[in-house]
Amino acid sequence: MSQTTVILCEGSHDQAVLTSLAEVTAGWHRIAAKDVPDKLHGINPKTKLNRHGEDVYQPPPSCLSNKDDFLLIRSLEGIDRILGTVTLPLLESIPYDALGIVVDANEVGVDRRLQSFRKHFTSLNEQVKHLAPGKVIDGSPRIGLWIAPNNQDDGSMDDLLIQWIEQDRRKLVSTGKRFIESLKKLESESFTKHQSKAILGAIHQCVKLGASLAVSLWESKCWLNTDVQTCQPLHALQKFIEELSSQSNV
Q1: Distance between alpha carbon 79 and the CA centroid of its chain, in Å?
Q2: Which stretches of the chain are assigned E, i.e. beta strand?
Q3: For residues 3 and 98, is the Cβ–Cβ distance under 8 A?
Q4: How is 39-104 classified by DSSP, letter by letter?
Q5: Quick check: 182 and 131 in contact, CB under 8 A?
Q6: Which pLDDT does position 250 carry in this prediction?
Q7: Which of 187, 199, 220, 242 has its CA 20 to 30 A from that of 226?
């Protein structure tokens, strides 16, 4: 029986990582939004206008299929929108069998993120109050939570991605880190919270010169390959996606 899995994340960088991981290592295939059943179109962003009355671009969700199943990955442009008032009304607009929430621990920490998650999602499944980070609980819907980078430490998906890239491109990452350190000496405040993102942006200029980090991540598929088992946190994230979307849990 066909089933639909929805994964909500903070931003376009995280969406690129999750989509690439599902494609490269978990057997999912990107499809056009028009090939998704009409009943799932509610996952698409609604039109927003800026103060000049112009349309504001919002990145579309990633739509993937595996046989008769669908995986929809959408960024909500900020953690406050995921762990706030946006998610539940969005989910009411589509039928789904499993929900994954992916957020960054940042400097707030895993425990605080877990508390916020339980506060907002217990109404969907009572077992949420017992859910540990990195795990999936059965039910209708199944629900899973991933707190980047590894469900234990402060940090973000950027830190996890650097850990992966450093294994295969150590010299490139090392050069990127030295470059960013040299910039910090000039503009230290700019790098207080976003040093990992700055390193990723620097090294991804090798992918598409002058492009944004988001564009380069999509272009390179985050330099992911089937050897993710050599990076334990990334391998665990792969297994999280597989468990969340697996019909064996139904």
Answers
A1: 11
A2: 4-9, 29-30, 62-66, 69-75, 98-104, 136-137, 142-148
A3: yes
A4: GGGGGSPPP-B-TTSPBPP-PPPEEEEETTEEEEEEE-SSHHHHTTTSHHHHHTTS--SEEEEEEE
A5: no
A6: 41
A7: 199
